[in-house]
Design brief:
This protein starts with a strand and ends in a 7-residue tail after the last strand. The protein has 69 residues and is mostly beta strands. It has strands at residues 4-10, 13-21, 23-27, 30-34, 41-44, 46-52, 57-62. Helices cover 0% and strands 62% of the residues.
Length: 69
Amino acid sequence: MCQISAVVERDGAQETVMESVTSLEVVENGVVLSTFFEEPKIISNVVIEKIDFLGGAVVLKSVPNGSGA
């Protein structure tokens, strides 16, 4: 099984916010990330910028408050 890492891009820098992501749900103000062994994590004020299936990463781009997904 192949899991993916989630990174947030802010001001040109990337920060890994969760590894081994098994589920990503788009919600009104961002995304909810889940893994097998951790509580779901809400990442607010982001949109999906790209998904790199070969590299195993989803890149989330920070957006101003109120301009979320």
